[in-house]
Amino acid sequence: MYLRIYIAFLSFILTAAVGAARTSVPLVNGWSFAKVEGEKTYQWENVAIPHTWNDADGTTPNYYRGKAAYRCRFDAPPVQLHTQRTFVRFEAVSQDATVWLNGKRLGRHQGAFTAFCYEITHVLKEKNNELVVKVTNAADSLVMPLEGDFTIFGGIYRPVALLILPNVCFTPQDFASCGIYVSQSKVNNEIAHLNIIAKVDGAKDSDGPYGLRTTVFAPEGHIVVTATNSNSVKDGSFLTLNQSVDISNPQLWGGVGNPAMHRFFFELIHNGQVIDTLSQNIGVRYFEVNPHQGFFLNGKEFPLRGVNRHQDRDGMGWAITHREHCQDMELIKEIGANCIRLAHYPHSDEFYTLCDEAGMLVWAEIPYIGHGTRHYAFDANARQQLTELIRQNYNHCSIFCWSLFNELGGSGRPHELVEQLNELAHREDPTRLTVAAANNDGRPENDMTDIMAYNTYPGWYWADPGTMQWAIDWKYDPNKNRAIGISEYGAGASINQHDQHIVKAPKTDGSWHPEEWQALVHEGNYREIRKRPYVWGSFVWNMFDFASASRHEGDRQGINDKGLVTYDRQTRKDAFYFYQANWSKKPMIHITSKRHTTRNEALTDIKVYSNCPEVSIEVNGKYVHVERLEHCIFVAHDVKLTSGENQIEAFGITTDNDVAITDKCSWTLNN
Ligand code: GCU
After folding, report:
1. Which CATH architecture has domain 23-170?
2. Which atom of ligand 1 is found nearest the CA of 344?
3. Would you call the peptide bond into 231 cis, given omega within 30 degrees of 0 as the criterion?
4. How far is CA 355 from CA 34, 350, 571, 583, in A?
5. Domain 598-669, CATH
6. Pick the CATH number of 177-282 from 1.10.238.10, 3.60.150.10, 2.60.40.10, 2.60.120.920
7. Protein residue with its CA nearest to atom 10 in ligand 1
8. Nearest residue CA, atom 4 of ligand 1?
9. Tell me: the pLDDT tens digits for 272-303?
């Protein structure tokens, strides 16, 4: 057995060596940047990529939305002139970029969140190349998004790389995808039937046949199948190779806790030689949304309990790195979520990869928000951004749905465009569902996607937290086959503001956003969601505070403070622990209102979130009576604090091994 694995790996390494002609050279340094206003170009400064020019002003109302230029000087990496081609690939530039190399215009890309790629083989010099990118993040009525409360950070905020590929290669130019699409046409516990399409760039009719060899490695590393037969058709400028691969008794990708992935190794073969190779990690899985029973993964009920994520971060804006992506994912794992809505636009390829690896189910989205423009160029931009989202992320097994809009309104007949986008998404990818997030009932576009979800804020923008029951029931019709989810719910919270008696929402656009109210909203909303198993998924708005330049509410300018974690990712708010208690299997205990350290009233409730079956609470060394409520909430009512410092300690006994876990804090009573 081990010998077989060893031989399989040896042949894998040997073939990989033949195909090692493919390399990627990141362009991180050597860049300079200047803002450009009218005829004036400001002082050039040296920068590294990723970069945004709004890192400091992105939370101010008049943050810079305008033009800028980047320049990068570099020597060409080693390229074999007659057998290799070179491309430059941008992972994202916000939001409208025109690119030149050595004075030659390579192209223009409109859209802040998707990758684009140009061939530079014949423009590249050995030394002293100059890459120039002129870019603007100014609002543009023909480029999505036209609305949204989030800051549109400008800049080359995701990596740039030179790709050095064989003359005939898996193309990097099909909407900047990797050129290979693994379609999970039919998967069940017995078989995974996959259709593979590889698009090849540079093949001439006179070359004779090209072949595709696909080797699939099981999660443990041994080869499960090798496929060599493929059909080829000329498809525009590409040669398209089609192949079917069957995996018998596949080990399925089972979401959080069981994200088993297969390794797919693709070889492009010509005249018996391997001329290009590519490798992808993909989990095989199947899913379904039942309008009355919710989400099913691999044939089993799998209620989706999720969070929304925006990509920006305090002091960095959108120009985040591997470290920040990983930290975000760790926090999402820590809270125990099994699903993420990556709102309101395509996120970084790196983050989708982290989702695949963590077993997170993903809702992926285009930035069609608020309204559109009745203009053919806007529609074309919408189609382009959707095609890029789908092709660039096709092989990410975590993604189960493509979202077509968020909160459309207005009278611009957006349903006509939504209908087109829905068809486009199905054509591009018949294996995934389409979805959308609405905040208005009765609009025609709400009935177009395969499944639907609603943004609703009972207890914040309207009514009280328990009203979530009406919000859901109103949307769900037991006689209709329309699956309903909750795409956003939540409330704002400052970690510096506290109120032990709050019973109704504070002024939402006011400066007072006590942390306690956010927790109550989540408790009340979540209780109602849980009672309704037909809700196929629910997504807290938002996992993290994010930049929203036009807002001035709570205790910070320019922040949407509905996050469960602060903008700098340093502080988890109480509501974070409510979900952790409900979702995470790891024993936890948390005393709420810990930060309300200075008290003026002797009588207080003490509320603890814990997933332990029993919790006890001591105040100044004496046990107090604790009532257990549903959804992991424990409360000691009307506890009397003494003047001066009070020590509060909570104990939970875990089910596994009777180990006690504790949390403590100290509150000072001022009289
Ligand atoms: C909307 C919208 C979000 C926004 C949120 C809010 O529903 O989809 O982008 O941030 O409301 O008001 O916080």
Report:
1. Sandwich (2.60)
2. 9
3. no
4. 35, 9, 23, 17
5. 2.60.40.10
6. 2.60.40.10
7. 149
8. 149
9. 999 999 999 999 999 999 999 999 999 999 99
